[in-house]
Amino acid sequence: MSLDPVLDRIDSDLDAAMERLFDLLRIPSISTDPAFKADVDRAADWLVSDLESIGIAATKRPTTGHPMVVGHVEGTGPHVLFYGHYDVQPVDPLELWDRDPFDPAIEETPKGRVIRARGASDDKGQLMTFVEACRAWKAVHGEMPCRITFFFEGEEESGSPSLIPFLKENADELKADIALICDTGLFESRAPAIMTQLRGLLGEEIVLTGPSKDLHSGMYGGAAMNPIRVMSRILANLHDDTGRIQVPHFYDDVPDLPADIKAQWDGLNFDHATFLGDVGLSKPAGEQDHTALEMIWSRPTAEINGIKGGYTGDGFKTVLPSKVSAKVSFRLVGQQDPHALREHFRAWVKAQLPEDVTAEFHAHGASPASQMSIDHPAFEQTRAVLGEEWGEEAAFTGCGGSIPVAGYFKTYLGLDTMLVGWGKDDDQIHSPNEKYDVESFHKGIRSWARILDAIR
Predict the structure, then answer these.
(1) Contact indicator for 170, 328 with CB cutoff of 8 Å
(2) DSSP class of residue 265?
(3) What is the CA radius of gyration of the chain?
(4) Of 270, 263, 267, 269, nearest to 296 (Cα)?
(5) Read out DSSP for 314-377?
(6) pLDDT tens digits, 344-383
(7) What's the mean per-residue pLDDT of the chain?
(8) For residue 384, what are the contacts with CB-CB under 8 A and spacing of at least 6?
(9) pLDDT of residue 75
(10) Do residues 420 and 193 make contact, with C-beta atoms less than 8 angstroms apart?
């Protein structure tokens, strides 16, 4: 089977491929909001129908939450499992969008043509690059290049509560030679990257209670303990002046970066000044004995994501609040155990509480870091062909984000995972005005065609 006719087909079919993507983008499949449950279900139906249109045996599988979509292509040669998610983040604040988030459109920008819509990059556009590559193979050759299992999730943006039970119950059906995930991006928005390590994630909400009710600051100020004062001190103690995290035992299982990996990363010539400058910053704020790239890819973090307490509306109210809450997340690396770290963090908070202030905690997810083995030949085969498409050599990189499904595939299916994606740093995923470059969509489809050709 020749590759060139497949690439030609992709080029000639690009407008139709974007129309198909637009159909999927119009469905507001927001998984975290029960009001959109029917829309998530409708998106699953759309994917089943689209896979069936190219001869793939696909089904919608019910779970206790949102459905999974599974499709199979039989044949000879290597067997790949492709994963993507069809659910999207909420769109709030809606007033910051320049157009309806679920009315996709092509926009001309100084950096080129983009597809503007919620889910355009994360992850509907990326998911469809693989589907469109398969569509082109089928149109040209009448069959797919290898055995393929399609696995699309509808809960990735809401914590994947049904994922592990589904993997356990369907492990025999989902097992393959290697898993492929398209939910990442290009290095510095220009060079193809194969992610080989992902940080884990731990979320904690702290609620501190002082007085039994809100108090007048004139009547009680000075005499009553203010829980905002306590919370502020605890959160300020989270880091020292060099950016090092102060929770006991936090660094127990954090490995040093291997010299060969550090050398490769240094060779990427990452421009941290531009990276931070694009968001109005200038100086890396993490551990000062590490480079900015190491801070993002290979070092753990502790970040305060939100604080709530007292009066925050317009005007002024002189109140001492009864309660204050804060949400803190930790990105984890190496062998850090999220469950052990949760207990260390809670003990550290409790040790700083004065009399008359109590703490309660609410867990918000816990997943360890993932390290990908690159022993499977698909890794080097992919690295070789991506350079042909993008004009720059592909690199094995880290990723500051967390994609727990990659680790779950190893744990429950015994699969190594290769993560490649075509997103750019300014795609504004999870934010208003999300976009996906038309070039990324087009080259992404061509890249998957090349990858399938290389590994078949």
Answers:
(1) no
(2) H
(3) 24
(4) 270
(5) SS---EE-SEEEEEEEEEE-TT--HHHHHHHHHHHHHTT--TT-EEEEEEEEEE--EE----SH
(6) 999 999 999 999 999 999 999 898 998 888 889 999 999 9
(7) 95
(8) 394, 454
(9) 85
(10) yes
Give alpha helix (H) positions in 105-222: 124-141, 163-169, 171-174, 217-220
pLDDT along the chain (456 residues), means of 10: 96 98 98 98 98 97 98 93 98 96 97 97 98 98 96 95 97 97 93 92 97 97 97 98 97 93 89 91 95 95 97 95 98 96 98 98 91 89 94 89 89 95 95 98 98 95
93-101 contacts, C-beta under 8 A, 24 or more apart: 93/432, 94/432, 96/432, 96/433, 97/432, 97/433, 98/432, 98/433, 101/28, 101/432, 101/434
In sequence order, which residues have a C-beta less than 8 Å from that of residue 8 and are 6 or more positions away?
A: none
Residues making up the chain, counted from first to last:
456
* pTM for this prediction: 0.84
Smallest CA-to-CA distance from 186 within 268, 105, 266 is with 268
- Cα separations (Å) of 15 from 9, 115, 260, 312? 11, 12, 43, 48
Closest CA to 354 of 153, 140, 182, 211: 211
Tell me which amino acid residue 65 is. Answer: G
Name the one residue in this structure whose structure tokens are 């904690």.
204
Token readout for 352 is: 């700083």
Burial bucket for residue 330 (CB in 10 Å: 0-12, 13-18, 19+): buried
Q: What is the pLDDT of residues 58-111, one digit of tens each?
A: 999 999 999 999 999 998 889 999 999 999 999 999 999 999 999 999 999 999
The phi, psi pair for 111, rounded to 5°, reads: -100, 10
